[in-house]
Specification:
This protein has 332 residues and is an alpha/beta fold. It contains 11 helices and 12 strands. The longest helix has 21 residues. It folds into 2 domains: 230 residues, 3-Layer(aba) Sandwich (Rossmann fold), CATH 3.40.50; 90 residues, no CATH class. Strands 1, 2, 3, 4, 5, 6, 7, 10, 11 and 12 form a 10-stranded mixed sheet that branches. Strands 8-9 form a two-stranded antiparallel sheet. Strand 11 and strand 12 form a beta hairpin. 42% of the residues lie in helices and 19% in strands.
Length: 332
């Protein structure tokens, strides 16, 4: 009798989350464990890097710093995926039965989605140890589950999700194009997929970033944290110069001409040294660690991202671009 009732109209305890998977899974409270290791060296290093990052963020950040960072991320989220307000996003979500947050980290965004759409079933998935902290922190949200596993192989059945969010994560998988295809396959016909990718920068910056991807796995976490603090200090010092420079177009290096703040010019074209005065030292350092610590961090041109979308037979509902990224919302 219940089979013809939309899932989001059923009490959450009526929905058997295990039935959404293509193989038998064990659900312990709000947590499912599928996989915690990768056979790919770069992916395993990337998983460990994010386990380290999220452990430090959760244990060292002040409540005020986390509040600022979360508020900033939520505001940015709306512009990345084409929503004018949180209310508009909430209205959009309430028609979705199954929502997947692919690459959920500490689960803050998963929790936000579950809060905005209490009759939807929200599943946050991450390959790092962060899911254990997320599951513990948000265990009171009855429409929210967490899965430790690979978002490139979720074990979810095909055509099961109404909405998939993969925010600032897909480029950290071993083969992002295959991950994109897998996530598309578990999306229902007519469902929507929101995704964000890093944007390729000027040639000098790309050369340094690619060089560091190979080097990073040779460094200890302590060395990477020290390096991240050095990048924060560098960005802060450049920012405090408050110097404007006029830069000519340099097409062979893909450097766009114009008037730049010195720190911004170096940041976008030569070296990532993130500093944001409002967010402060710790969050700026976390941001630098987030960039430099993982081996997997693929960047895309606009054409490459659009090709990936079209190759998976998705229609573009909303497309966003800025210096850091491309993102959008796509319909299957």
């Amino acid at each position: 009798m219940l089979s013809n009732i939309p899932l989001n109209l059923l009490p959450m305890e009526t929905i058997d989350i295990a039935n959404l998977f293509s193989e038998k899974v064990k659900v312990i409270d709000n947590l499912i464990h599928l996989a915690d290791k990768s056979n790919a060296q770069n992916q395993e290093q990337t998983n460990k890097a994010f386990s380290e990052k999220w452990q430090v963020v959760s244990s060292s950040s002040t409540k005020e710093d986390r509040k600022k960072a979360i508020s900033r991320q939520r505001k940015w989220h709306l512009s990345l995926y084409g929503f004018k307000s949180a209310e508009e996003l909430s209205f959009f979500l309430t028609s979705k039965e199954i929502i997947i947050d692919a690459g959920c980290g500490l689960g803050e965004k998963s929790s936000w989605l579950a809060e905005m759409s209490p009759n939807s079933l929200v599943i946050g998935i991450d390959f790092s140890e962060s899911v254990y902290q997320a599951a513990e922190k948000f265990k009171e949200q009855k429409n929210l589950y967490f899965v430790r596993g690979d978002i490139a192989n979720t074990k979810l059945k095909k055509n099961v999700a109404d909405y998939i969010l993969c925010d600032q994560v897909i480029m950290h998988t071993e083969k992002p194009d295959k991950t994109f295809a897998h996530l598309t396959s578990i999306l229902k016909k007519g469902g929507e997929f929101s995704c964000y990718v890093y944007r390729k920068k000027a040639v000098p910056r790309e050369l340094l970033d690619s060089f560091f991807r190979e080097k990073t796995k040779k460094y200890s976490n302590q060395e990477l944290w020290e390096f991240s603090e050095q990048m924060t200090a560098l960005g802060k010092q450049f920012s405090e110069l408050k110097t404007q420079i006029d830069v000519p177009d340099i097409p062979l290096l893909e450097i766009k001409g114009g008037k730049y703040d010195m720190q911004r010019f170096l940041y976008w074209n030569f070296i990532k040294c993130f500093w944001n005065e409002e967010l402060g030292w710790e969050t700026s350092t976390y941001t630098n660690f987030d960039w430099y610590s993982p081996s997997n961090a693929k960047r895309y041109t606009k054409k490459e991202f659009e090709t990936m979308i079209m190759d998976n037979h998705l229609q573009i509902k909303y497309f966003h671009e800025e210096e850091a990224c491309f993102s959008g919302r796509f319909i299957k």
